[in-house]
Amino acid sequence: MIKWGIAATGNISNQFVQGLKRIKGGEFYAVASRDLSKAEAFAKKYGAKKAYGSYEAMAADKDIDIVYIGTPNDSHITLAKLYLNAGKNVLCEKPMGVNAKQTAEMAKLAKKKSLFLMEGMWTRFFPVTQKVQAWLAEGKIGTPRFMSAFFGIESGENWRKSFALSGGSLLDVGIYPLAFTMLVFGNDYAALKGMSLNNAEGIDEVNTFIMDYQDRLATIACGVGQRMHNRVYIEGDKGRIKVDGNWWHPKRAVLTTGVQDVVDYAEKKTVFKDNYPSTGFQYEAQHVNDCVAKGLTESPIMPLSDSVAIAQAMDALRKEFGVVYKED
Ligand SMILES: NC(=O)c1ccc[n+]([C@@H]2O[C@H](COP(=O)([O-])OP(=O)(O)OC[C@H]3O[C@@H](n4cnc5c(N)ncnc54)[C@H](OP(=O)(O)O)[C@@H]3O)[C@@H](O)[C@H]2O)c1
Fold first, then answer.
1. Closest CA to ligand 1's atom 9
2. Does 34 sit in the ligand 1 pocket, CB within 6 Å?
3. What is the pLDDT of residues 132-156, one digit of tens each?
């Protein structure tokens, strides 16, 4: 059994651990919080053997194989280094680093230590995402030339809009449509152009950008404190793929082929559904668990080179937006 430690007891750690509880070959073993009573309550609620009152104390536990980091963005690098230096594999919530420099530094340390490291881009592990990739590979929509992806949420609380905690809509939610675009169109875009609405702290609350791949274009929009009509469309010369609902942890994709006209009557629709139980984190957790069990140091589905490429794109976009972090 692979033994998991969870760093932090916030929103996403609660969701992650519910998925983790469903996997094979791994167990929720320990949890750490800045506050011991919160760690103890979390351990009791989800059934962990150990509870630690600091992130550092958990690093000293020799039995832990892998740590999941679910703290705010600005602390990811410090904690990833703490656990990698303590000989633990790491699954770090997105964005892994606040900028490309941090992301590359983390990747370098994991490589040096021969330990597994992955950014928690959980969208990639859902059967719906994999079905979309299969439809594309099978040429179901012909040659894709355009895609659009939107992700805007109502909530704009705590760290999401904070300069001190390296928030902002691009790193919080925009990273999903960016990573999805790079999954479909690749990492070798030719140009990026973007605009944003920044708050008084200089953090982007709403932004939009275009990725130019020369023979393909993508248009993306995202926001915190600004709800959007969230969906992904991939448009080809023979059809279209749509992923809607909460498409970053998708339950449904629709493939539309046939004559595309002003009216839809000649079109044929194929729907792929996956009504997964629990939070959906089981797919990512199972994949990471399998990688660690096999002794891999990187995921073949979410490799570190993709994390660095995504971080580089976000750095370039933030230059366009005029968003500068203390870490830059
Ligand atoms: N994969 C996804 O879909 C997804 C969704 C949401 C968020 N995320 C990512 O997950 C991370 C955390 O997001 P969240 O929504 O879980 O946030 P959250 O509810 O505010 O929880 C963050 C936790 O981090 C710990 N923490 C350590 N230093 C902190 C500080 N200075 N201020 C506040 N909390 C601190 C706290 O746990 P203790 O008090 O126990 O120490 C806190 O409960 C972010 O990096 C975010 O990008 C991913």
1. 93
2. yes
3. 999 999 999 999 999 999 999 988 6
Buried b (16+ CB within 10 A) or exposed e, 266-289: eeeeeebebebeebbbbbbbbbbb
Question: For the purposes of burial, counting CB atoms within 10 Å of the CB of 211, is it exposed (0-12), middle (13-18) or buried (19 or more)?
Answer: buried
| Spans of the chain, pLDDT less than 50 | none
Q: Give yes or no for residue 278 CB within 6 A of ligand 1.
A: no
71 C-alpha to ligand 1 centroid (Å)? 4
CA distance 200 to 323: 11
CATH numeric code, 2-123: 3.40.50.720
**pLDDT, position 163:** 87
**Residue 231, exposed/middle/buried by CB under 10 A (0-12, 13-18, 19+)?**
middle
Domains of the chain, residue spans = 2-123, 127-275+310-321
Return the exposure string of 20-47: e unless at least 16 CB atoms fall within 10 Å of the residue's CB, then b.
bbbbeebbbbbbbbeeeebbbebbeebe
Mean pLDDT for the chain overall: 95
Q: How far apart are CA 192 and CA 211, in angstroms?
A: 5
Can you list the alpha helix ranges (DSSP code H) found in the chain?
A: 11-20, 36-46, 55-59, 76-85, 100-113, 127-137, 169, 175-185, 281-293, 304-321
pLDDT at 262: 59
Are both 2-123 and 127-275+310-321 of the same fold? no
C-beta of residue 49 within 8 angstroms of C-beta of residue 26: no
- Identity at 116, one-letter amino acid code: F
Ligand 1 pocket, mutate which of 12, 31, 94, 175 (most atoms under 8 A from CB): 12
289's tokens: 């668990």
CA neighbours within 13 Å on the CB side: how many for 191? 5
Domain 127-275+310-321 belongs in CATH node 3.30.360.10:
yes
Specify the DSSP class assigned to residue 146.
E
What confidence tens digit (pLDDT) does each residue in 102-123 have?
999 999 999 999 999 999 999 9
User: What is the pLDDT at residue 278?
Assistant: 98
In angstroms, rounded to a whole number, what is the distance separating the alpha carbons of residues 62 and 197? 46
